[in-house]
Design a protein that fits this description.
This is Acyl-CoA thioesterase. The structure is a single chain. This protein is an alpha+beta fold and 180 residues long. It has one domain (4-173): Hotdog Thioesterase (Thiol Ester Dehydrase, Chain A), CATH 3.10.129. 34% of the residues lie in helices and 29% in strands. The protein contains five helices and six strands, in the order H-E-H-H-E-E-E-E-E-H-H. It has helices at 4-19, 49-67, 69-76, 144-150, 162-173; strands at residues 30-35, 79-89, 98-108, 113-121, 124-137, 140-141. Helix 1 runs parallel beside helix 2. The longest helix has 19 residues, at 49-67.
Length: 180
């Protein structure tokens, strides 16, 4: 089941941070902390790999609220979409461990913002994901220039380079499964 209560409490906590003046720029990294709960683990008593992706949602919503994107989503009647992702796992997260989740923008092109998210326990990386994300209006992805303009960041450029550019190219070459 989706963690709606955690999601709502993450939004409330991020809004409180904004009220206290603890906002973020698009160039900064969001960090939130939580404990691995019994509802997060699998039969091996570690965080389920699918749950990792679900909990990454919490990091992206904290980032959106604290950067002002959340306010623009409501004002402009925009939505968010994930259009691609890749993840690596390095260390298990066990029940009740304290997790730090980090979220940052690592590249922007004309259509997509590329987000890097990672989970850490005791200062050690446990997983890292790259996500191709977009802002939508009426079910269609809008140009990132409109999003950046709404956030007062029209002049910010962060073109994909290195491993991000390689992932974009590799992902574009990936064939879709055959129909039928």
């Amino acid at each position: 089941m989706y963690p709606f209560i955690r999601y709502a409490s993450t939004i409330a906590h991020a809004a409180l941070q904004v009220k206290k003046g603890q906002t973020l720029t698009l160039k900064e990294t969001s960090e939130i902390q939580f404990r691995c709960r019994l509802t997060d683990i699998d039969n091996f008593l570690e965080m389920n790999n699918g749950r990792v992706f679900t909990l990454y949602d919490l990091g992206r919503i904290d980032f959106a609220v604290r950067t002002g994107l959340g306010k623009q989503l409501l004002k402009q009647r925009w939505g968010l979409v994930v259009a691609g992702s890749t993840i690596q796992y390095r260390k298990r997260i066990r029940a009740f461990e304290k997790v730090t989740l980090k979220t940052k923008i690592i590249a922007i092109d004309t259509r997509w913002m590329y987000i890097e998210q990672s989970m850490w326990v005791k200062g050690k990386p446990c997983s890292s994901a790259i996500l191709r994300t977009g802002v939508t209006k009426g079910g269609r992805v809008i140009d990132t220039s409109k999003v950046l303009a709404a956030l007062g960041q029209s002049d910010w450029k962060l073109p994909p380079t290195g491993y991000v550019a390689e992932w974009i190219k590799s992902d574009a070459d990936r064939p879709w499964p055959p129909v039928g």
